[in-house]
Amino acid sequence: MITALCLGLAALVLRWVTETPEKHHVEDDPPELEATNISVVSEIPFRLSLSAAATQVQLADMEGKPLWQKQGEAMSELQGSLPNLPESLVLQVTWAAKGAPRYFAKVVIDPPGRSSLSHVFDAEGDIDDLWELP
Q: Which residues contact 101 (CB under 8 A, 6 or more apart)?
């Protein structure tokens, strides 16, 4: 009797396995999800400290393409963001008043997921200098 029961059960399983998939209704296909665009924030925040008031400040890449710039009066502490992290950064600062023995500018860049990068530029007059980032 157990043998007949086992044979019957085996026949049902075999029939169920060999039937066409349309006859099996295990679960409806899950609804298709709409594709979403994930925007990655690629801007890199930075801080710039100046030893004196400046009228113009610009950060550019090696080719001279401006990445960030600001004009105004009496700028000494600035914050902004770069669209990307270049291999080299050119800082140009035009001082409001001339006459100090030396001027300096400190740039601190905070790339996401990395340690902060900092560099101090100094000059006897306006700054126009290159920093090769590590």
A: 124
